[in-house]
Design brief:
mainly alpha, transport, single chain, Growth Hormone, Chain: A, about 80% helix, transmembrane helix
Length: about 425
Amino acid sequence: MSARPVVLGLRANAAQFALLVAVNALVGGMVGQQQTVLPLLAGEEFGLTGYTFIFTYVAAFGITKAIANWFAGTFSDRYGRKPVLVVGWLFAVPVPLMLIFATDWWWVVAANVLLGINQGLTWSTTVVMKIDLVGPRQRGLAMGLNEAAGYGAVAVTSLLAGYLAEQYGLRPAPFLLGLAYAALALLLSGVFVKETRGHALLDAGRHTSRVDGMHDHLHADLTDREIIAQVSLKEPALSSASQGGLVNNLNFGLSWGLFPLLFATADLTVAQIGLLFALYPGVWGAGQLVTGALSDRIGRKHLITAGMALQAGALVVIAASHSFPGWSIGTILLGAGTAMVYPTLLAVVGDVAHPSWRGRAVGVYRVWRDLGYAVGAILGGVVADLLGLHASVWVAAGISAASALIVAVRMYETHHPAPTLPHP
């Protein structure tokens, strides 16, 4: 029996694409199980008071996830996508158990180191695999579906974990969700997911340079050092995407560690805090179903610029509010701004990077993006300790506005839809 021919496109690869969407939802769920609960656990069970110290778990997560992104990209280009995905899920299994049985805060930090490795290896790999499968025409749609699944699961699981915590206590009930997610994901990734590197090789064989010559210097045989330099500093679109991703996740890292504590100042219940926190990734996740495909039609740059500006405005609303209604509006707007940015930045990397080093380019971009978790947690903690919780949000609003300006000035439009060819 001959092997099925490799074909690019979402419809041609619908079954595998849908399976990878489901796997990425489980990746997001691993984060959602703890986001509402851990800041409360820090104070109630471990007696922590300093914001900077409480945020150590977010910083540990962000730094290890950033490093794991690079290895995910490098190893997926070298050894294939599927082995990296399976190994990433093996790192997830101990996480919920460590959180359930933690006797001091450093067990929580260690669990988040493992979670960061899990997230870096699995999320990066599902991103690359979806870009492999769909080809150049529908990258925005593919990234929208991928990120919607992941962050929709963050929202749903955050809400469910908050409910379980209120009904049954902070431990162990919320973390049993993560244990179930890890077991199911290992089964799906190990047995049913198929390797996609052959699709990337087919894409590379069809790759053509842009008519305007913009990417002539980005040939197929760049070294790892050259890829890092282009994505980090030299290439205008790639480096603009990297800084935009970092600031976006700075806001997410800040919200992860700070928002539950900020919301608790108004004597809200755990369920209300869980709902507020779920609104942000919920709108973010659902919005990407629209914004990813929209970027395939109208282009990437203006959507990213407007999204970063909207995030800045949303943070102003949150910083100026002191009650549930204002925070609800702010988190909804923050989710909408993030939805405009998140899949579109990944699509920019897919547009510009050559298929032969796509995995490494995505890895470098995600290194910078996920360092934002650590920067947001540390910056937010330091400013909160010195000036208060609201001041931390004001600082993040200013940084987001500056990021929007950088994208507007430096990034060029990377997506030029190919003309539709008539069917033979």
